Amino acid sequence: MSLRSSHIANTLIIQSLKGISKLPFPLLYALSDFLSLILQYLVGYRKKVIRNNLRKAFPEKPEQEIRRIVRAFYRHFCDISLETAKAWSMTEAEFDKRVVISGKEYLDNLYADGKSVILLGMHYNNWEWSAWSQKLLKHKYLVVYNPVRGNPMFEEYLLTMRERWGAQTIPVHKSARVILDFHNLNQPFCLALGGDQRPPTVSKYWTLFMNQEACFNSGPVKIAQRTNQPVVFLHTRKLKRGYYEMKFIPMFDSPKEHSEEEILLAYVRLMEECIREAPGYYLWSHKRWKQQRPEDYPLYL
Is the pTM of this model over 0.85? Predict the structure, then answer.
């Protein structure tokens, strides 16, 4: 595709998403129901990957239950995709109505003490709406992201949406420098990181994640220990369709007093607890367990 054709295609897609953002919620979810049927039964979007992941994660579940979770996944996946588009034009009143923040008092106390926060999240429920919390938090909300390869127009669209309420987005390759700058300036920040996806290269930190051996990026833990900033887990819970609770759960007040492995394992076990509570809300469409653990790498349990 030529640059001009690519530009036209991206413009049409982005304008379509902006148009979708103006749909009232009942129509938005009617469209989501239609798209979930198309993706599952006509397109078969990553159906093999999704089913294989679920069978590995829940070997004890009968096939009927796996099929039920697959249907729930497609419905929820289309919901959060359209909810992400909807965020472009959602008002402050709409967010305030649909997103409940729990555990804010703990973060406010840390801010009063001049402490920053390492916020560990995951690709579960609607993680994109978490940027709204900047309106309610005293900390500067920093969102680390992986740049969209070869599509600067779409990246600009996403970043503009994520920064609507004052959050700051940071490309992952610049995150360490930006974080240290904030730390050295004594400006309390809340660094949002999602460490549940497969890292681009094989890490030395391996454990069991949903009954499968999986490696994790040690970057978030290393940042927490280097700055000794409290580690908090973000649990986004779906209250009902289009309504979420974002709960900040304290994990470690002083990371330097704990090993990297201890922090990592606590994070993984919290993720598993959330996923098992409602498995259809997790992002099962990525190949999480593609990598194999080298024989000389330990498995932390």
Answer: yes
pLDDT in tens, 244-268: 999 999 999 999 999 888 999 999 9
Residues near 196 by Cβ (< 8 Å), separated by ≥ 6? Answer: 122, 123, 124, 209, 271, 288
- What contacts 242, CB < 8 A, 6 or more positions away? 25, 29, 79, 83, 98
